[in-house]
Specification:
By secondary structure, this protein is mostly beta strands. The protein has 2 domains: 373 residues, Neuraminidase (6 Propeller), CATH 2.120.10.10; 56 residues. The chain has no helices and 38 strands. The strands form 10 sheets. Strands 2, 3, 4, 5 and 6 form a 5-stranded antiparallel β-sheet that branches. Strands 1-31-30-29 form a 4-stranded antiparallel β-sheet, with no helix packed on it. Bound molecules: calcium ion (CA) (3 copies).
Amino acid sequence: MLFLISACGCPTKVNISNRPQVDILYNDANYISTERSTKNVAACKGKVHVAWFGKDNSGNQAVFYRRSIDGGATWDPPIQLTSFSNFHLEMWIQCFGDTVIVAYEKIGTGRDLYYRYSINGGTTWSPESPLEVGSYNQEAPSIWLWNNNFHLAWADNRPVFLISNYYIYYKRSVDMGLTWTPDNRRDISDSPVIVGDPVSPNVLHIIFMIFNSFERKARYIRSTDNGNTWSATFDLSGGVNANGSGFWGRPIGYISAYNGVVHAVFVDDRYGNKEVLYRRSTNSGVSWSGIIRLTNTPGISWNPFILTDGMGQVRLYWVDNSDGDYEVMCKISNDNGLTWSADAKLTNNTARDVMVSVDYDPSTNRWNIVWASDESGNWEIYYTSDPCPLGNDEELGISENFRSSEPQIYGWGIKFNSSGEAKVYNLSGRLYKSVSVYPEYSLRLPKGVWFVRFKGKVYKIVVH
Ligand SMILES: [Ca+2]
Ligand SMILES: [Ca+2]
Ligand SMILES: [Ca+2]
């Protein structure tokens, strides 16, 4: 019996929403994210924060929130952050240290952006405040937090020279949204994702799309002065329009940056069906690699989410309907985006598994993955992590093992089949002991939950 870490995440998952009504991450009737300014998980300082839309029995929605303060092992009860009302499509959750912000689209005067924030890691929350409210539509909030800088990008169709068109806007607050820099209108048209570079936090990157009857392309702008000025637009799509009717024509994308290396992904169908395409910059977005095809599946590859851990690992998560019902997929680069692993499945079932978003917490070295699935019959929000959540499930990770080189997990400890250094951690992540092991070495452990790191993998052991 053995527990193996899967490539994309833990084989067990936590049902975060667990309500008899509909719980979704992106609020549309297609149950497919038709834009990408959506992020439902944030992980900082060992706390994991998840936000989603939950419906009531009348079909109204509210924003729900749930957190783990032990890196995803156990979860506090859910909190309802808003009253039941009418919401539009997207929400965004972001953290920095113990600051957490949840922003979302409400139906008001057109569509408006509101937010709540916490400065104590999600224990208590500010009242709901307007983030960007006015006539016409304010949509697609995307947030980057760094120290006291609250960067907001959004899409807005307020009239420009009397013509209503969606543009990308940007503004910044250093007092949690009490005061703001002026609304800074950038380019046409929608679905911005803003990220900063943790090594050079004054460098900001926005991926967005132009989506109208003339053009459907992924676009990019950058700032090197903390959002005061922005570059001209760069066409990530290389002149090629996405095809498909309605929202399927949207080249929805995502972006991630660390130490000047920027990873951008978007979707179009230049290879015959929807695939995830990738470009990489090694000079903070000054210039870009050619377009690299990351997926090659017969079905729709959609909803890409790319993230770097800052230590050379880059992960692409996306959803793919090649098996007929959508799965969450991933592939991993361990050389900062130069080469990529084969496709791997995080989910594998007959339900729709969609709307994936991811955050990485450097304080726990943990990838946190959230998606929605209708496998319960009424849509739930699921969470998993890589390595596995610490002790959320007694049967976690127990599966038959046929790899003789792998350690075996028992109720009393772990038996090794090869030589090396094993490090044993307790439930709170503290190193318990380091052991030099060899084939047939049996390491007996006291009663409790333990994690053994051996040859790059983490094994969970429950000693009863
Ligand atoms: Ca539900
Ligand atoms: Ca495909
Ligand atoms: Ca599925």
